[in-house]
Design a protein that fits this description.
By secondary structure, the chain is an all-alpha fold. The chain has helices at residues 2-10, 18-24, 39-48, 67-99, 103-113, 116-124, 136-145, 148-153, 155-167, 174-187, 195-214, 218-231, 237-253, 257-274, 277-293, 297-310, 320-332, 336-350, 358-372, 376-393, 399-412, 416-426, 429-438, 442-459, 462-478, 482-496, 503-506, 510-518, and strands spanning 53-55, 63-65. Strands 1-2 form a two-stranded antiparallel sheet. β1 (53-55) and β2 form a beta hairpin. α22 runs antiparallel to α23 (429-438), α23 (429-438) runs antiparallel to α24 and α23 (429-438) packs parallel to α25 (462-478). The N and C termini lie far apart (92 Å). The relative contact order is 0.04.
């Protein structure tokens, strides 16, 4: 009988060791006295007797039941002890796991026991919320199972819910959860100045800063990040680290690449130190984009590859940005097959992200690939598809990108008026310069390009400087300055050579091919 009692009560465990079994098989709740305190001995006996128990390590400390045997035992346990008795077993298991630093398993048993307070405490984590450590699915599943009355009584759960939704890219319901949290906070008896309340207010602002990142709204990112840092206690390192990253993204949007790079590096260092998995991914993506901007393509490829390694299999949707970054690198080096492969993988993941422009970005890049492959109709169809998504979803920050690819398609078709109109309407000076060159007006092209190159050099934007130099070389050649054109083209080739940049030349077509021949 005491072996049967042991088997039934420990069947709630996915893995077990002697001391854990001793806690679960507790004499105070009516278990058989002979089973109490004998966990390790009974486990060894069960292994020797071939009773469907498998050791999980060489030391034979951890064991598990065969899953079919475990399911049978759990069914019998429910019949034997009832819901309250089973919940008691889960509670004791949860306390043991928490005491031994195994918070995810402790959380699993707390939710199985229906202990809201314990589960919330464990999900929030002592130093790092569980979903920031990659355990987002069990946390979201639990939160989704709770009635609204429970969430309203615990404002922190609404904030946790919003944070976990952001983590997996399900942004559509996030603001609703944040407003519900604010209403619940206002209606609670909590002191508005106590540390826990201020932390929740700060966390709400931090989540709104992250939403602003998805909308590329630099001013809102900065405003909400600063509010978050004002309210968050210094001990809340995970969220404060996230705000370091979001401020870096805002600086990148403003064109301050040095400040962005410093913020990303700081966020990466801090996130790795505290184990903030998602910010490690985002900081690596940010650094990768900065390395691309510096034409350090090998370094950028390493950063993106690291993201893909960390993102798991199946990968988190945010990894779409790493695939798209690698697609851009392949394209720049004229590896169109590699670019196509990475773009398809990026689009597959981007489809899982709600309320973001990532899929539109993938579609636009796919259109650029079609253009490089001389498939004008395919490029136009993809550009139109992206334009419709941008218009319907009001992704206004993508409108110039749509216009740029449409203008390039117009140029390939010889529609200079259409390209000129798009360039003028959306502020696309490189397109405008190409139109002037095709119209035979090299001085007008040079007048546009000179200040662009000056700004790129002043800001240190080496990626933007190079295509300007190529167009300047074409313009100089067109107005008879062959020697100056060749000198400038030589400088452009020397700048492009270390990174293996090819498309920046090839995309300018036969006229540049002739000039390269002369060089």
């Amino acid at each position: 009988p005491h072996i049967q009692d042991f088997l039934l009560r420990t069947s709630i465990l996915d893995r077990m060791c002697g001391s854990l079994c001793d806690v679960v098989v507790d004499e105070e709740v009516g278990s058989h006295p002979a089973a109490v305190g004998q966990g390790q001995e009974i486990l060894h006996y069960l292994v020797r007797a071939n009773l469907f128990v498998t050791p999980l390590d060489n030391e034979r400390r951890w064991h598990r039941y065969h899953h079919l045997f475990r399911d049978l035992l759990r069914q019998r346990l429910q019949q034997s002890l009832g819901a309250a008795g089973v919940a008691g077993c889960h509670l004791r298991a949860g306390r043991w796991f928490e005491a031994n630093g195994l918070e995810l398993e402790a959380f699993t048993h707390a939710t199985a026991a229906g202990d809201i307070e314990a589960a919330a405490h464990l999900a929030e984590g002592k130093e790092m919320p569980l979903h920031f450590r990659g355990a987002v699915t069990p946390v979201l599943n639990w939160l989704a199972s709770l009635p609204s009355s429970v969430l309203e009584a615990h404002p922190a759960l609404y904030v946790l819910y919003a944070s976990a939704l952001v983590y997996v890219g399900r942004l559509a319901g996030v603001e609703e959860k944040l407003r519900a949290a604010e209403v619940a906070l206002a209606g609670s008896a909590q002191d508005a100045d106590d540390t826990r309340t201020r932390n929740l207010i700060g966390h709400i602002a931090a989540i709104r800063a992250t939403l602003a990142v998805s909308q590329h709204d630099g001013a809102q990112i900065i405003a909400q990040s600063r509010r978050a840092l004002e309210y968050l206690p210094l001990s809340n390192l995970p969220v404060r680290t996230a705000m370091t990253w979001s401020l870096g993204y805002a600086r990148q949007l403003q064109g301050d690449r040095a400040a962005a790079k410093a913020a990303y590096a700081a966020a990466l260092s801090a996130s790795q130190e505290i184990g903030h998995f998602i910010i490690t991914l985002l900081a690596l993506l940010g650094l990768g984009s900065m390395q691309e901007g510096d034409n350090q393509l090998d370094a950028a490829a390493v950063s993106y590859a690291r993201v893909l390694q960390l993102a798991g299999d199946p990968a988190l949707p945010v990894a779409c940005q790493a695939h798209l970054g690698l697609a851009r690198i392949c394209y720049a080096r004229n590896d169109l097959a590699g670019a196509r492969r990475y773009t398809q993988q990026a689009a597959h993941l981007a489809q899982q992200l709600e309320a973001t422009d990532r899929l539109a970005a993938c579609t636009l890049f796919a259109a650029r690939l079609r253009l490089a492959e001389r498939d004008l109709e395919g490029a136009a169809a993809l550009a139109a598809e992206a334009a419709e998504v941008v218009r319907r979803r009001r992704f206004t920050q993508r409108t110039p990108d749509v216009a740029a690819i449409q203008a390039l398609i117009a140029l390939r078709r010889g529609d200079l008026e259409g390209a000129q109109a798009l360039a003028a309407a959306h502020g696309l000076p490189l397109i405008e310069a190409r139109v002037h060159l095709l119209q035979g007006d090299a001085p007008a092209a040079l007048a546009l390009l000179e200040p662009l190159r000056g700004q790129a050099e002043a800001e240190g934007w080496v990626d933007e400087r190079l295509p300007v130099m190529v167009l300047q070389a074409l313009a100089l050649h067109a107005q008879g300055g062959e020697e100056a054109a060749l000198r400038l083209l030589q400088a452009a080739l020397q700048a492009a050579e270390p990174a293996g940049l090819i498309r920046v030349f090839v995309d300018e077509g036969p006229v540049l091919a002739a000039l390269l021949q002369e060089a």
